[in-house]
Design goal:
The structure holds two protein chains of two kinds. Chain A is mainly alpha-helical. Chain A has two domains: 78 residues, no CATH class; 180 residues, MetI-like fold (Orthogonal Bundle), CATH 1.10.3720.10. By secondary structure, chain B is an alpha+beta fold. Chain B is 28% helix and 24% strand. In chain B, strands 1, 10, 11, 12, 13, 14, 15, 16, 17, 18 and 19 form an eleven-stranded mixed β-sheet that branches. A four-stranded antiparallel β-sheet of chain B has the order 4-5-7-6, covered by helices on one side. In chain B, strands 2-3 form a two-stranded antiparallel ribbon. In chain B, strand 10 and strand 11 form a beta hairpin. In chain B, helix 12 packs antiparallel against helix 13 and helix 13 packs antiparallel against helix 14. The chains are: A mainly alpha, B alpha+beta. The interface between A and B is large, with 62 and 64 residues. Chain A: Belongs to the binding-protein-dependent transport system permease family. Chain A: GO terms for molecular function: dipeptide transmembrane transporter activity. Chain A: InterPro entries: BPD_transp_1_N, MetI-like, MetI-like_sf.
Chain lengths: 314, 507
Amino acid sequence: MTFLVKRLMVLAVTLFVVSFVVFLIPYLTPGDPARKILRARVGDLDADPEALAGLRETYGLDRPLLVQYGDWLGGALRGDLGLSYTSRTPVVDMLGGALTVTAVLAISTLLLALLVAVPLGSLAAVRRGTPVDTAITTVTQAFVAVPEYWLAPVLVLVFSLQLGVLPSAGWEGPASMVLPCLTLALRPMSYFTQVTRASMIDVLGSPHITAARARGLGFGATMLRHGVRNALLPVLTLFSLWLAGLLGGSVVVEVIFSIPGMGRLLYESVVNNDVPAIQAGIVSLVGLAVLITTLTDVVHAWVNPTVRAPHVSG
Amino acid sequence: MALTVSAALTLAACGTFDGGTASSSDGDEQTLTVSLQFTPRANYALETDDALVLTQVGCLETLLTYDDEAGALRPALATEWRQTAPTVWEFTLRDGVTFQDGTDLTADAVARSLRHVLDADTPPRAFTPESVSAVEAVDDATLSITTPEPSALLPYRLASGNTGILARAAYGDQGIDPIGHCTGPFTPVSQVAGQSISLERNEDYWGEPAEIAHVEARFIAEGATRATQVQTGESQIALGVPVTSLADLRDDDDVEVTEEFTPRTTGLYFNLARAPFDDLAARRAVQAALDLDAMASGVYAGGAQPAVGPFAPGELWAPEDAVAPTRDPAAAERLLAEAGYEPGELSLTLLAYTERPEFADLAAVVQADLEAIGIDVEVRSSNYSAIEPSLLEGDFDFALLSRNHLTDIADPLGYLTSDYSCAGSYNISQHCDQDIDELLSSANTMDAPEDRATVYGDVARHLQDEAITAFIVHEQTYAAHRTSVSGFVDDPLARYAVTADVTLGRS
């Protein structure tokens, strides 16, 4: 209970600090906020003075920064994150849609990565020192270095242009998820494989595996019941870190594949100086990251009893 | 467990998809898919650039249209227009036009629509309270528009997409709802914010109805993706194709590429208010030092032409004898000496902005060209917002800018006035010449387009001869379409893409 209360307090303080810093950033960078907003609506460098004056009045941009921030904070506490400067629609609606898209993309990507990485990493560990291990290790190490902006066009070239089996862009059905997921999954898959391998090697050398085998448990059953479960702990931690990162959206992948997710939304909000959207977007993402970390700790404790009951062993 | 997660994920994913049907290949002669480069982001507010998306997809129409080849206005929702008093224009509406929701196009509906734009918190440059003082319905079929001062250009304002006309029901508390509220050949039936808009043929269109039954317009920001979509057949038309994709597209037998000049010219804007560019010889030295051919063919990979002035050859306003300056380093050195500068004496800062990726290379070429005549150039490149204060406060030597000269209406008066008149709102060069101001002022009252063209030609010649700006390139735009598409015109002003004339067969 104390653990949860502490976590919630950390979350509240973190969100407060982050929201203040994020609010300040657009005002600390050079340029007139009203001109930036107008340029987002009308793509012209020249700005109509009357329109600028109208914008300053509408959004109260001439008021002191702290007053503007106080207004935002008051609204946020009532659940009102304001209207986007650009679309003039509630920011909550924009974020909800984008976050759902990105969450689906991120979780699908990481599940795909896990599905490949756990068997592959386990195989490398079991066949440690053999050509199979060398091949898996070398290939996954190489995959870590493959950038998304290179991989995405290559996949489009092969699967959309040459073979014509998958859509090259859009968010229109399960088929449109395949190429973005593959692009994003390569790097986490490589890391997950390497961590699974290292973790499995540790677990395989531990006394309880030897004991299980001595009790007559078969190799496969030992691996599943004792090996993989214990080896998964560090992979789960890595999974949660990747998840928190991917929820922020991948600008490159979302732009190339024209996916209406968080990465594209935040990128466009920054370009358009859409302060309410940036503010709400970053605060939501930080909140989610803290939440995921907390959940990971809970899952960690569930998978590893020694974490949730340290007083027993102590 | 894994199955449960997968099932939940699939359900969640289905909820996020836009429900559009991906049309592939050229098989369906009734559905046209078009990839647009601009994504509407202001909830289709007509005072913003979102209006262009609605005109591009054949939904939104204006009272008049501008025929850029003829350089003349044509009837659209209005059939006649006349100046009934020095500050009053009257428009006669086309008979028998209905909005897609079945309501009639009346002068009252048009006046209401135009007033909505005029009263916006950020009215469009084409239609501001400074240029229009009143919009009123005279009777059901006649609209009257009053200007604060006599203006020959008022009808051009009614050809801007920002002054498009929507039915009364389109204007709600939550912004503009274009679904079923236009007058064009295609009726929007559904949209997915930031993704796409779906349209169906308007069977009650006042003109010749379209052949195509369905249109799916996708908003794809990435140029290479748009190019790929037209190659795979996922789209039949792609606008704004990047130069880097042209070779692949031209090699594809099923794809045709079209090219047009845009009304956009990139130039080196000098700060005339301080040394060294307060001196004509110094400006001409830079003009003579620049290798425009190399920039057009190298930096733009042939996707631009060396500039002959602010207007491209072929535009009505470009002087007939205008030619692009050729590189002459010897003359540049001589001019620099004439301005009183020894080689190596000048050290200048060039501002450039990152929103235009080609500016990094362009700035490097300018740097090299000027180094060859002994001018040391430091390039300061950042996003436009960061350099804007320096530009507006006159705290710079020279800057690379890409300017659209038809940003408000299909006439360059707005651009020339804002950039080069003494009180211009974007006169960052700080150019002030009373003769030029008088010329520009006179153009506003000239009825005949050719008379105005003569004035703009004179101003363009002045800007080039006096090296007020060193114009670098006229930019081109490329579009690609499947060979199965007929009747598509790549509009250089980006107003139209899907029209009633576009048809779809088999390639």
